[in-house]
Amino acid sequence: MSETPYREPTPDGYSAAWADLRRRRRAAALTIASWVGVMGAMPVAGAAAGSVGAGAVLISGLVLMGWLLRPKMRIDCFNCPACGKTFSRLRFAQNDFARRCVHCGIEMGTPKNAP
Ligand SMILES: [Zn+2]
Predict the structure, then answer these.
(1) Is 112 among the domain residues?
(2) 42 falls within a domain
(3) From the CA of 61, how far away is ligand 1's center (Å)?
(4) pTM, whole model, 2 decimals?
């Protein structure tokens, strides 16, 4: 039994959405970091494998570039909890690591009942 008289407050919809956005951005950053590591190791692997290996290395790099698209798409599709529009993407411009919604300007992490 807890000694506190009240239950822990449940997170509002905004804080759950912000946590989701942070998770998506963390996944994208980890994907980019791992991609840079793999691409850095590819010339060494290609040199060790010879001319036939160079083609395989090139194809592997292209496949890995496709691997980068998924976390980017997840960030692009995140909807702002305040206005419901895409948080970081306008029609022709986007900032995947924006701190404020590009439509309504609400800052990431703002609670639902903030003034
Ligand atoms: Zn918004």
Answers:
(1) no
(2) yes
(3) 36
(4) 0.73
